[in-house]
Design a protein that fits this description.
By secondary structure, this protein is α/β, with parallel strands linked by helices. The chain has two domains: 11-147, NAD(P)-binding Rossmann-like Domain (Rossmann fold), CATH 3.40.50.720; 180-408 and 430-473, Dihydrodipicolinate Reductase, domain 2 (2-Layer Sandwich), CATH 3.30.360. 36% of the residues lie in helices and 20% in strands. It has 16 helices and 15 strands. It has helices spanning 21-36, 56-70, 78-86, 101-107, 125-134, 154-167, 183-194, 224-228, 231-249, 258-270, 294-297, 398-402, 404-407, 412-422, 431-451, 466-473; strands spanning 11-16, 45-50, 88-92, 113-118, 143-147, 173-176, 207-215, 280-286, 308-313, 325-330, 337-344, 362-368, 372-380, 389-397, 456-459. The strands form two sheets. It has a nine-stranded mixed sheet with strand order 14-13-12-11-7-10-9-8-15, with helices on both faces. A six-stranded parallel sheet has the order 3-2-1-4-5-6, sandwiched between helices. Helix 1 links the parallel strand 1 (11-16) and strand 2. Helix 1 (21-36) packs across helix 2 and helix 1 (21-36) packs across helix 14. The longest helix is centred in the C-terminal third of the chain and has 21 residues, at 431-451. It binds NADP nicotinamide-adenine-dinucleotide phosphate. The site of NADP nicotinamide-adenine-dinucleotide phosphate has 22 residues, from helix 1.
Amino acid sequence: MVSRVIPVDNFDLVIFGGTGDLARRKILPGLFRRYHSGQMPADARIIGAARSDMDRKGYQAEVKKALEEFVPKDARSEKTVNGFLDGIDYVTIDAMGDGGWKELSTMLRKDVVRAFYFSVAPSLFGPLAERLHGHSCAGPSCRIVVEKPFGRDLESAKALNKTLRDHFDESQIYRIDHYLGKETVQNLMAVRFGNMLFEPLWNAQYVDHVQITVAESVGVDGRGAYYDKSGAMRDMMQNHLMQLLCLTAMEPPSRFDPDAVRDEKLKVIRALEPVTPEHIVRGQYVSPEAGASYLEQVEDPESITESYIAMELAISNWRWAGVPFYLRTGKRLKARYSEIAVVFKDAPHSIFGQAAGRHRNVLTIRLQPNEGMDLFVTIKEPGPGGMRLVDVPLDMTFADALGPEAEDVPDAYERLIMDVIRGNQTLFMRGDEVEAAWAWTDPLIEGWTERGDRPYTYDSGSTGPEEAAMLLHKEGRRWREIRP
Ligand code: NAP
């Protein structure tokens, strides 16, 4: 396969919160990898901005440390690291004060793409936006990038959107959900809408059910106080899993353009039926190891916040009438594993008799680890002894199918930041999508909070509470394995 790195236009990218964890772990290493691949123009500029008092050299040294920590040795060279650092600048700025802004405005060039990454707490978005305008740093063609959480309920999401829209047009706002930047997630659209094979089967007539799993093996370790205010529903289900659901269930957009795609995703959220309590299972992990159970890692020993949630959703439209979508996500599970599985119905009549067993086609889209797809098809088990059937995967692991180039695909952050520079919002959430997702989520959270529903417990390293298995068992289905 021939590498096709398409360079982006020249840019100035200001990272507010340039000294923070996200900038060090994701944003700067991601930008470096794009530089290393030759996608970034040689004189593109990245300007870190935070309150810490530092000069350009000091910040360059910090960035170098972050690259050494978060970019593998074989993915960097002294030459590319030094070249990248040449384009790094720093300005000391307090989002709540007025020092440093004049300096920033003189640093910014007029004839290049201008983007501001708000890698700071959401409470600083308003003050930052006001000062960017007040000091003539922002114009109608600049872009801003914001990170989740996009509110913690509908009301706060609306307030946040208003703050942003008071200063920027929706076409300038890039809300990052890094799940949308994953190669496989985009491949889901390519598979659905680039092939004749799948789309005719992608409906209630042929699909039995869909499972979406985002399993994490880590716990809340060290982030307990923050996580306990949010829980799996707010932290993962309302955003990442909801986005995966939308891409799986949406109608074909008329074009692969930002608003056409986002309109279709929004229709899916609006078609979700309210979920009743018997279709939701929440859990908290427990561990025999001292201090390793959820309730020992958060401040409130009586907390009813969930570290796991599974639910059965129904989409009320013609395509999906009667097809359950089972979604689950949790911490401290058996493995770090994420996939979307579209499970097709049984053949209407088996000519092989009961002894051949029950076989179903399943298309799985793996997000992690080993991004790729599998299509399980039924074939005859080789050898003598009559017609025994077996399901085998047609494996489409990208790295195997496409060669070494596929191993070098940009990670989600790299791709999304380059999309910001290109001005392509397709893989970013629009404000109305975020609000619709909260409008659907809020009553569910209010319901279990008012009832005081206590989550079930599950063992660390397991697949979640046993009660979650019952969600599917009662319909004669089962969760797919969470594989290490
Ligand atoms: P962090 O490590 O606490 O960093 C915060 C950054 O903001 C620091 O660079 C800090 O530098 C700067 N800052 C704080 N107050 C400021 C002010 N008044 N003016 C200017 N700069 C200020 O936070 P983070 O983990 O990087 O997260 C940043 C944002 O991304 C948060 O909204 C978070 O929810 C979101 N997010 C983070 C992750 C992640 O993996 N870390 C993932 C998803 C979303 P100074 O102290 O020097 O000012």
